Amino acid sequence: NGIIHAAKTALDEYISTLNAEFNRPYVHGIQDNFAAVIKGKKTIDSVQSSVNDELARMKIEVNDLAAIIRKNLKVLNDQAAEYKSLFNDIEYVIQKDPEDFANLVFSRIEAHMIEREAQEKAKQAEAEKAAETVKEPLAEATNTQSPQTEAPPAFSDDQLISFYMDSLRLAIDNSPSVSDKKLEKLVIRIQKKLLKAVDELEEKSAAQDKAA
Q1: Do 48 and 34 touch, CB atoms closer than 8 A?
Q2: What pTM was estimated for this model as a whole?
């Protein structure tokens, strides 16, 4: 009848106001008892009075549920702000008793941390295995390499000087000709100076050998 319809509408509007506070339909599953409370009532006034009493009772019940939801949301935001993806069923579990909800939050986070730690250990073990796979052929290649040849014996100072002087003479003798006359004269002058320096070095080296 019209009295019950009006009461249901009033209750729905009240619930909608609370859900607007939460930005989600957390308040749901409320069952009214309007039809039962008007049974046996003979007058409109008695029917209206019974419906009003039931509506008031339902609002109290809804307020109690909203209070529970607020407590649970505080636990969720304080303890699981970074783990809300673990609560895709939040619209259903948010109505749990606060103690039960807190235990649910902690158990899901703990299970998530254990799983993540196991995944990290598995990744680390895989990386270590890959590193060992790379090390083994390198070690094998190192062990199978031919032994390094011994370094050639070092030359004496006299031998080095003689080698460099012979190399310098050879370079001068094999130097390419220059077409430009002026440049050719300059090159010849430089070559003579170098040859003279070589001769001086040889004389000095011979003198040192005699002194020794």
Answers
A1: no
A2: 0.57
